[in-house]
Design brief:
Layout lengths: L9 E4 L13 E4 L2 E2 L2 H9 L8 H22 L8 H13 L18
Antiparallel strand pairs: 1-2, 2-3
Length: 114
């Protein structure tokens, strides 16, 4: 029986301790720590770049969390180590996976392969 180490699992925190719209800016964690300060800055900049809906912020969070989880669990890489081959592998898995697998294909992501 395999024992899964969840201490380093990539997870999404949908809300943060902040006022106003910043409370809805997601955070991605690895274990109990922030995954990456630059990824967090990307999320904090979303409202300044026009993404103000709490639903849109959450969608960004989940999509990026799935990508980072794939990189961590399948490729054993960080977001900054990812290569084109990793993007292609991610898309292959998402196309083959059924609903609820966590690796589903979303509209517009094919542009990453171009």
């Amino acid at each position: 029986m395999d024992i899964l180490d969840t201490s380093s699992k990539v997870t999404l925190e949908e809300r943060r301790a902040a006022d106003g719209l910043d409370a809805y800016v997601p955070r991605i964690l690895r274990g109990s720590e922030l995954y990456d300060a630059d990824v967090d800055r990307f999320f904090l900049d979303l409202p300044l770049n026009g993404v103000r809906s709490s639903h849109s912020l959450r969608a960004y969070g989940y999509d990026i969390m799935v990508w980072l989880r794939f990189l961590t669990e399948v490729c054993d890489k960080t977001v900054w180590e990812a290569a084109r081959a990793d993007v292609e592998a991610f898309h292959r898995i998402r196309r083959k996976s059924g609903p609820g697998s966590g690796y589903r294909r979303r509209r517009g992501t094919d542009r990453l392969l171009q």
